[in-house]
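Quick one - inputs below.
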Amino acid sequence: MPSLIINEIYRTISGEGASAGRPCTIVRLTGCNLRCLWCDTTYAYNEGRKMTVDEVLAEVQRLDAKLLLVTGGEPLLQTDTPELLGRLCDTGCEALLETNGSLDISGVDTRVVRCVDIKCPGSGQADSLRRDNLDCLRKTDEIKFVLADRSDYDFARELIESRDLTSRCTVFMTPAAGLLRPAELAEWILADGLQVRLGLQLHKIIWPEAERGV
Ligand code: SF4
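Output:
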């Protein structure tokens, strides 16, 4: 029976991407293959309990979810994640997948919005991107760069321009909390005329003290 190791399932307000501000149910999976320097979900590396896909679906339905974000950790590390995503779409939910870009995203159900978090040098994981993933992007997909400084911005801009990312999907640039001022990032974006969206981590503004479950 298909099953997953689940870290947490809860209702919140979506904090990032095109869905920011909308009521959302988070399904956080356990385990990650990266170790980003400013990771704010280290508790998801190992903590979790086994649930069948049916049990996850039942919990999601109990929470009356219309919008679902499957995240981690790194959700694609678990072999039954694609099945979970497909089954969530079958229930009529909007399903989003947040992934760190290091694993193959091509097999994910076409109804799923894939949100690929491309790691910049400041994260310590800049070599993690699986470049093939940029070949199979869909218009509905989202790419996010979390930026700590100007070097991260230049890294992101180079990739955006060399792969024409802003005309192929929605691209977000988000300042790393406490490391880069949003106003500074805004100035860089405007100066270069980049057609990206400046993303703020809304959940950290709403619940600044919370360490999990937001
Ligand atoms: S990919 Fe995400 S969960 Fe994994 S270490 Fe980086 S920030 Fe943390």
